[in-house]
């Protein structure tokens, strides 16, 4: 199922700054505003940064886009191009590559089907290059792809499947795509995170051995994630914060009610929500009403970014023609 | 889109009793407990009952079933049979019938696709009876079906489409199936409501003229609804109630905080939630994670109930054989 | 099921010319070659032309396109534009219109799902114009759409459904889209026929009363059809012709075998194929292996043509933005 | 794409007998007629049998069933049980097993989607046994499954993917399910072949190294295949045979035309069909019109057979309950 434990690096960093009034030491954060896209790059430099961010050393690039993006083909094209350029930088354009694209997630559950939907739109070249090596020069990279399914429907850890394939075909880079869960409703539909530090498939046993990353696979791993659901308890939590803030505004400062509300601190509230609501909310998820359309749109954007990113010697027109 | 304004009669009645410590006047409520199904029949007798229940005069039968039903074929069969018997009573078995089954909802949005999915499993006989009248005796009723789509994708009020068809084919009964929204998370997956008072398709203009009922169509209308989503603001509301109750338990009675909490009455809370959260939650819905499977299961149960209900002269084996 | 009796006007005309060495009297045939599209317009002027062509008086425009069209987004755009211009001419651009788009066919059978797939991509405006008449000027036409299903799954003649809706909403034009069967394998994937003489849904009772045309609906009817299957017996027939031709080439002219082959005339061959092969081929259809992709591509082309054709005051960019 | 080169062993054997008037040496053929199922077991004993049959040494069991099977749930249950018993014999019931079920084929192309559809209905237990070893005794076998896709959409030989996974999870048996092409139209919908000699995925490079069998995988391989398409050239060929036979019947024996027809021998005819028709028929396939429904029915039958076959200690009721 969905990868609900994965936070966006940018969310953690924002939270840290809000609480501590400063950036995390050991990370470099850069922001760039395009007309329709905000790019936030977080570079985790060392163990200190990694510990405080709760994320491995490496690069985390977040694209914040308008929620209308998936309804506007020009915006989609723009975002796909920006994503493609970022991927070219992360993958490298120096030498011939073999890329394995992995569409993580469950194709039977709409909000978890982003990965498999992206996988189906990738320009696959590996079998053609193998079959007719003379017809392709080294300018075209070799690309293959798989949608391994999820533990609940295969009974096999996703990592085991990927590892088996990587050992057979020895790619120079693995690109994973997955649906994420966000802690913030506002991220849904509006964020793409690209990182070079790997990913933990949602339902996997949470030991480090099973993480899909360079350390475990022996090959560079790039992960692309889009938040498509919020946990039901997250949205309750957020809503209560909004309401308590409003109550505090309305309540005379210094009154006993004010003090008690203030004292209703985060931890206590989280515990209450967890204990009381888990049995009641556990099987529910919160998604946009138009989730089918949103997933479809993001799958087009991200597959185009990957096709651009992995084929630096093709121009976008050629890729567009192929992808239509 | 989903019919989020439709409450289940049984919920309204329960709420009324909780607050007023008595049943609504002008309604008769009967409960019957089978091993795996609880049947609640509410009969609204007169204007007084109708006004207090907020529902037209007529019959409302609710089946409460285990949430495991859709994972257990025997339970499914049992529920389908009970539903079929109820439908036979509402439709009547006295004379030859022509039934039009209407699968309301949007087939592109999973939690709203119950109606169209049911429609596809109905035993269609009308064209065969028309084509080969000698081969069918009057014991087989004439059945046809349509999935008219929703206003957002057709641009036509669902009522207009139904009315046009009814005028052409003059059925003796119209059976509508729709996804509902519930006010209670606990209803999701676990309730089927059958009534003979009509239904308002979700996105329709909310004037009475557009309601799909006997008054407007000139023919008996039976509606079957299953709650498949909860509004995001509903779940926040319910969660806050749980938490306030827990806080009250933990707080010394008579203390000021206790009093303030008590005073944080329902209306105020609803207003806060509405004002603060509408922009934030408005485009979200809450569904079971397994919504695809749940909708599929309910579409099997309800289509079988309808096939049984409209063909009192066929035995269940014949219907099962057809439906597999 | 599929409309296998519908021949393309252009095929009949070609056959006639081949046999009779001249054009049919009473029709005007014009051809125009663009770089990637051949446009053949047949205008049936009078009863004589109608009888010989076996088609009602009116216009039949056929676009012959490359079979690669659906793999090339630029070609698709080009074809969509040409189709849009033809539709503008047939619909007329003089005054405000209300259009009803009808997606004929069965969404559960891939090669028959073109109509429903097109219907889902139409720019629906009617409900918005009704709801907010001040926000739309008369330059935007009112568009609504329906996918009525097929007789086998609804039990209702498609004509009855359309007629019922037309009487309610009184459109100024009805645009029907359907999958066709071709007599020629070469037409599959490569032809779009647009006519203003109506259409007979495939499985309908074949009486004239049920034809979806201006005479029966009281409103102009434009039909757009794409051949997506060939009858199994057609392909056997065509193949035998090829083989007999080849045998004739190899056989000494004047020999007895040659004469017998020549005498194995069309009628005899057709009778043999019909008698011998019907039971054996009756339930089979022949489609391109990539039928899912082909249908998807044509649904994009045709929905864009319709969106362009029915909204002469919008430019293509606006329509593209909407449709993406 | 579809595995069009795979012939059914039973077809080859029938052909041999027809031509040679005797059974192939080195094979044992047994037939058993149940009320609704004919079971043909071919055991290839040695190299001679293998060479003549063109199939490896091993067992080939064919179930011939009524074409109405998928419309009748009782027949489906019956066939599933028979299939389950055959699989129990081939898999063995002596000791604890780990089974990997492989759903071969392309889920995007309906007639090729049988394997992936079966895969989704398999009772997956491996992850549960790994997670909670104490809750499962050794009576429940460990089952996992994968749908690896096809070369055209992954760029990876299916064999490479399977081999990689087999090396990681070391199953005791691999069960592959695939759509087949038949040489005979009559086989479509009506045949299930089970063998223990492996399978060659359709689009794979046709070298022996890539065959999914015990020799290459190091573990027993059971293959289950259902013919779902006929090659377009096959159906032309068969049709011509029917017609030539009919012409011969009508033609005076001893006449020149008769002789020439007789001389139009198989090889020549095949060459003609191949040369003349390949470019014309190459991209076409022939399927039943109801292919969606047929594939769905067979996926239920075969998944139930596998669930029964791999869990000899569960009774059918338990499996039915799970599978519904």
From TrEMBL, chains A, B, C, D:
Keywords: Hydrolase, Protease, Zymogen
Signal peptide interval: none
Gene3D superfamilies according to UniProt: HybD-like (3.40.50.1450)
Propeptide part(s) removed at maturation, as residue ranges: 1-7
Enzyme class: hydrolase
Family affiliation: Belongs to the peptidase A25 family.
Record-given protein name: Germination protease
Gene: gpr
